[in-house]
Description:
Helix content is 47%, strand content 9%. The chain contains 16 helices and eleven strands. A four-stranded mixed sheet has the order 1-2-7-4. A three-stranded antiparallel sheet has the order 3-11-8. Strands 5-6 form a two-stranded antiparallel sheet. It is globular.
Amino acid sequence: MIPPKPPARPDRASLWRYMRLFRRDILSAQPAKLYRAWMAEFRTPFFRSYLVNQPELVKTVLKDRPADFPKSDRIGEGLRPLLGNSVFLTNGATWERQRRIIDPAFEGGRLRDTFPAMLAAAEACVARLATKTGHPLEIEAETSHVAADVIFRTLFSVPIEHETAAQVFARFRDYQRSSPILNLAAFVPLPRWFPRLHRRATLRAARDIRRLITDLTAARQDQIAAGTAPDDLATKIMTTRDPETGACFDTQEMVDQVAIFFLAGHETSASALAWALYLVATHPDWQETLAQEARALDTPDFAALGQLRRARDTFREALRLYPPVPMMVRETTCPEGFRDRTLPKGAQVVLSPWHLHRHTRLWDNPDGFDPTRWQTENGRTCLRDAFFPFSAGARVCPGAGFAMVEGPLLLSMILRHFRITATGAPPVPIAHLTVRARDGIHLVLTPRDQASP
Length: 453
């Protein structure tokens, strides 16, 4: 069974039609030829955009010369009401200072420290799901719940049921519904003073989320001052001084960073886990293999994660087929020669995990579900050259290692307790903030007999 893939648009479309399609869904707005092209140009009256699929050029942009290709402000326009001046949107010296403070919190040794909080969220998820077996369940709502729980437990040492955490989660759902991935300024260069025309519901939700995060951050600052703060990610980040300036994040800067941790760590993990569960639901033999492997969690400790190799490959395959962030946009700082074209200064360089992960000239069986591919020569080559769900190079997501522990753990814990079958029409992937299903992903969970051989 080939996993669902959105239909492509006809090769030619007017700018205004493309804008309407893009605003509705990035993925189906693109022509089919991008799955085989090394590079494609898109011209508007205001700027030029170049989608780059050739691995050598992607490496140039992300790894070899990242400072020459900063993040484009155009995409950030739509997210700035929520994310402010977070590390996701900044460039240059500001970004470098932010990463110097943030990166130590996600170093390898910290993953072991966060494991008990992840495990507690996984156990709470299993308990919730146990009350919802035997009938169709919209699984994206459940994966959003557990991913948010992981974030709050690891960041602030509180479960999702905590009053403020629950309010953030609720308002974030409102933000998702009201916020398109692109603002008008993504297509039309606007002066700083020109209003960005965000929807009122988007602005209200963003203000509410930031107010709630400010409350959590202020309370943690008080705990740090009193010497009673728990040793979690928030305390680590808020007490880390920039080794060059000696300064910590102030409250406003910390609110910006917590907002992106929640968006990146919750929204992307929820998307990837939901698709992973759908994929195993439609491949029952592989699901049983993962369920057998998940018995390693009968002794639930950090060391058991090393035995979840097939779950890790499955989660990686879900990230390949349904990368949560389907496109990334950089900007040229000077004219560039890519292939047979000259990219002018200020051109938009689009890097598309969605297309590169399914590129017909790179991958064996690019649209198929095959977690064993990562053990083949082609899979290992593409893992190195054509797989970047968390970006790559200097701007790789600091939580990438975190996500690759969380995802396989949650997937294994769920399969250890439940058999999963798909029901209803196949989900249709669309991209708003992340790659989700247009009408949800509907699964039926049945308790698994732990005594069965």
